[in-house]
Design brief:
Chain B: Belongs to the small GTPase superfamily. Rab family. Chain B: This is Ras-related protein Rab-14. The complex is a heterodimer of chains A (about 675) and B (about 210). Chain A is mainly alpha-helical and about 675 residues long. Chain A has 24 helices and no strands. The chains are: A mainly alpha (about 675), B alpha/beta (about 210). The complex binds guanosine-5'-triphosphate and magnesium ion.
């Protein structure tokens, strides 16, 4: 404001001057260039060029002027300058006055500030002193703070550690169990935790060894060992409890279909970590199931189904095959079911097959005795070889079938094997018995030299036995082995019996009879496998008898033609005895008569067949006897023919004695 | 997972009977494995398979005994009828003889099972329409039957399920007595028992007195 005042005043003068000029005369600005040198005209120009309405200062000045210049008169105009100066003076005086107070105030402010500064200085000094004094304290505090932070950290770590390495109260509680003894999901979780902690401690021990300094190491070893110990205690009591529970639970599983609950499966799974307890629990389960299976079998044997259908198995004890078969089928089904139950119990475990088999063996062991006693009774009282053999095959079949479910060592299989052995023995006993009976009272051969009744019966038995072997499903080797034994048990005594029975017959009858008997045996056997060697052996025997019969037949013919004597003499004749015709009974006439008889045989050979040959059952054998005997006769004729035609034998006209050549004879007889 | 496939409340025992080669083993295989066994050997004696099904919201385990059709096994297979809750009697629609033998199979089934055993007739090999030897109508007159194909799997599921439904119905209306031994049905109580409460024995299960 002070500064402005100056310019303000100057403008006032300028304005005044311009107004004066305006008053005097209007000036033509653009009139002439010569006027530019004239200061007045320059001034004028300047004034004229200034634009009043844009000059704020000028406007302000004029406005201020108008406040006191109210009357435009000469006098006032004359006084204007002094008026303005007066006013300016007054204003400046006002200004000084005003500034005076400002100055005074500033001075007081200055004083204030100065005293303030002093104050501050004082304070600073005091603070400095104080700071010097508290320095230690602060250091101490900082140290403490750091320590506190470290401790907090440790506390956190400790919390996490506890969280990880200690059981929560509710976990401890769940491990201790509920009053009613039930097991809950929480129990298994807690048990799992305990195990986890125990394991973690082990890991801790191991890693500490590698990383930590010796003191920390010692400390954490102590820690870990302590925790492990407490976890071990928890574990022991929990497993103990779990085992008791499992044991009790298993004991109740004696129903037909055991209710293997989910919790039980879990319990068994958890017990795997304690092999002994696991084993005991499985044993307990096995024992319960064993009881159930025994009871089931006894029920099926004695009670049957609802209202008696299906009928109790024992009701069929008069029918050995059905009785034993039903029992075995029941056992087969029970074994399969028990294996399923066991698998469902162990579904969460990594139990191996061996363990399953072990328990299954235990479960099925109980029924062995009641089963065995019954089957043994059947076997011992059964006489019929065929039934015994069928039973034997049935047992074999089931040994195989049940053997697909349980292992070889299982008691049930062993029992079946035992019974099977017994049935085998009983079967062969029965066959042998039969054989002994055959030889005990040998029948005489019937008049037709056909088979005796006991031969027929025994062959029928053989057929029946072999038939049920055909029908059974047993391994090829077993079959073959049995076959051999059966054959020697039946065929050998049969042959023996036939020989004994034939012993009182003449050789022709015997040969024919034996041929018939052997023939029947052959036809029976030839229907079956594995009989080749037997058949060969029989054939050899047969051939011997056929030979006998053939020579009997040939000599029969020769005898009938009275040629036997002639032929015998020719065969034994030695040249030193002289001419054949000179020997007694070999004269032309006698030989000729015989040859005539022989000739009539040649005319109808069938008239001279031994009756025994006709009794031979087999046409093939009959034919071969005939053929072979004819060959023999032809041979004999040829011999005689040659002898008679021999000049040394001195037959006159041998042609008339033996008119037919051997070839002719062969032709006639074939 | 927790419930698992083992949580079933009943076990039903089935037998499958019928002449050899009608496809009994194939039906069982199709039902349990959902596959067709093209060259299936003759069954020796008996074989068995299981599967869990659901009827009216109840899980039921089927224990199915597949018998041999060959005559020489009759004596053996007859022993398996006892204690069956369901009997599936199968013939081959392309072989009339297998149909003609049904009456003998039915006689066996009636004589050897219990009175409540559900007997279900199945005409198998329905895929071989061109070789059909027994008409559906004819078989329908003999018994309420179901034609299916073990090859394509058509209707196989239904045959087994319908039988189970019928058995379940018999249980519901009380005509099948679960307490009796060898009813072919075993019941497992669904609600967990309190293991240490020995004073209450579940009434459903064998009082063997
Ligand atoms: N096209 C066709 N073939 C089938 C069907 N079912 C079975 N087969 C065939 O029929 C044959 C006999 O089937 P199996 O299941 O062995 O018969 P099975 O009744 O068990 O015979 P056994 O065990 O001897 O009593 C096999 O070659 C199968 O491939 C079917 O639905 N359609
Ligand atoms: Mg089969």
């Amino acid at each position: 404001m002070f500064v402005k005042d100056g310019t303000y005043a100057k403008h006032l003068f300028d304005t005044e001057a311009s107004i004066k000029m305006v008053d005097k005369e209007p000036i033509d600005v653009s009139s002439s260039g010569s006027q530019t040198t004239n200061p007045l005209s320059r001034k004028l120009n300047k004034i004229l060029e200034s634009r009043l309405d844009n000059d704020k200062d000028m406007l302000e000045a004029l406005k201020a002027l108008s406040t006191f210049f109210s009357e435009n008169s000469l006098r006032t105009r004359r006084n204007l300058r002094s008026d303005i100066e007066r006013r300016s003076l007054a204003i400046n005086e006002d200004f000084i006055e005003a500034f005076q107070s400002v100055k005074e105030q500033l001075d007081s402010v200055y004083d204030d500030v100065k005293s303030m500064n002093e104050c501050c200085q004082d304070m600073t000094n005091r603070l400095k002193v104080a700071k010097e004094q508290t320095h230690d304290l602060i250091n101490q505090t900082t140290k403490l703070q750091n320590e506190s932070q470290a401790l907090q950290m440790k506390a956190q770590v400790a919390d996490v550690f506890l969280e990880k390495f200690q059981l929560k109260p509710d976990e401890v509680k769940s491990l201790r169990g509920t009053r009613d003894g039930t097991l809950h999901e929480k129990f298994f979780q807690s048990l799992e935790r305990v195990k986890q902690i125990h394991n973690d401690c082990k890991v801790l021990l191991r890693t500490n060894q590698q990383t930590a300094g010796i003191s920390i190491f010692m400390q954490s070893v102590v820690f870990s060992l302590e925790i492990m110990e407490s976890m071990a205690l928890h574990q022991e009591s929990a497993y103990e409890r779990l085992y008791r529970w499992t044991q009790n639970e298993c004991r109740t599983l004696t129903a037909d279909a055991p209710d293997v609950s989910f919790v039980l499966c879990q319990a068994i799974e958890a017990l795997q970590d304690r092999p002994v307890l696991f084993r005991y629990s499985l044993d307990e389960f096995g024992t319960a199931r064993r009881t159930a299976v025994v009871r089931g079998l006894i029920d099926a044997l004695t009670r049957g189904g609802p209202g008696g259908t299906p009928r109790p198995i024992e009701l069929h004890s008069h029918d050995p095959l059905r009785y034993v078969g039903d029992m075995l089928a029941w056992l087969h089904q029970a074994t399969a079911s028990e294996k399923e139950h066991l698998q469902s119990l162990l579904k969460r475990c990594s139990a191996n097959d061996e363990q399953i088999q072990d328990v299954l063996g235990h479960i099925t062991e109980g029924v062995c005795r009641p089963f065995k006693v019954r089957v043994e009774q059947v076997l011992v009282s059964e006489q019929d070889a065929v039934t015994l053999y069928k039973l034997h095959n049935l047992l074999m079949f089931y040994h195989n079938t049940i053997g697909q479910i349980v292992c070889k060592e299982a008691a049930l299989l062993a029992t079946i094997r035992e019974i099977q052995n017994l049935s085998h023995r009983m079967f062969f006993n029965s066959l042998n018995c039969n054989a002994t009976k055959l030889l005990d009272k040998v029948e005489l051969p019937p008049g037709d030299l056909g088979p005796t009744e006991s031969l027929n019966k025994t062959l029928q038995l053989l057929r029946d036995v072999l038939a049920c072997q055909e029908a059974s499903v047993v391994a090829f080797d077993d079959k073959k082995q049995d076959f051999k034994q059966i054959l020697s048990c039946v065929v050998d005594p049969l042959l023996q019996m036939c020989s004994v029975s034939a012993s009182r017959l003449n050789s022709t009858d015997m040969a024919a009879y034996m041929i018939n008997c052997i023939y029947l045996m052959q036809t029976t056997l030839s229907l079956y496998e594995f009989t080749d060697t037997r058949l060969e052996m029989l054939q050899a025997q047969m051939d011997a008898h056929i030979d006998t019969l053939v020579s009997e037949q040939a000599s029969f013919v020769l005898n009938r033609a009275n040629l036997a004597q002639v032929y015998g003499t020719i065969q034994q004749h030695q040249p030193k005895q002289g001419a054949l015709s000179s020997i007694q009974g070999m004269d032309s006439q006698t030989v000729k008569t015989a040859m005539t008889k022989f000739d009539s045989y040649l005319a109808s050979p069938d008239t001279l067949i031994l009756p025994q040959c006709s009794l031979i059952l087999s046409g093939r054998v009959r034919d071969s006897v005939k053929k072979n005997s004819v060959e023999l006769i032809c041979e004999a004729y040829k011999h005689m023919f040659e002898a008679i035609n021999k000049p040394a034998n001195e037959y006159k006209d041998p042609q008339s004695i033996v008119p037919r050549t051997p070839d002719q004879v062969v032709k006639l007889l074939s | 997972m927790a419930a698992g496939p083992y949580n079933y409340s009943y076990i039903f025992k089935y037998i499958i009977i019928g002449d050899m080669g009608v496809g009994k083993s194939c039906l069982l295989h199709q039902f349990t494995e959902k596959k067709f066994m093209a060259d299936c050997p003759h069954t020796i004696g008996v074989e068995f398979g299981t599967r869990i099904i659901e009827v009216s919201g109840q899980k039921i385990k089927l224990q199915i005994w597949d018998t041999a059709g060959q005559e020489r096994f009759r004596a053996v297979t007859r022993s398996y009828y006892r204690g069956a809750a369901g009997a599936l009697m199968v013939y081959d629609i392309t072989r009339r003889s297998t149909y003609n033998h049904l009456s003998s199979w039915l006689t066996d089934a009636r004589n050897l099972t219990n009175p409540n055993t559900v007997i279900f007739l199945i005409g198998n090999k329905s895929d071989l329409e061109a070789q059909r030897d027994v008409t559906y109508e004819e078989a329908k007159q003999f018994a309420d039957e179901n034609e299916c194909s073990a090859k394509t799997g058509d209707n196989v599921e239904d045959a087994f399920l319908d039988t189970a439904k019928k058995i379940y119905q018999n249980i519901q209306d009380g005509s099948l007595d679960l307490n009796a031994a060898e009813s072919g049905v075993q019941h497992k109580p669904a609600t967990p028992r309190n293991p240490l409460n020995t004073d209450q024995t579940p009434s459903k299960e064998g009082c063997a007195c």
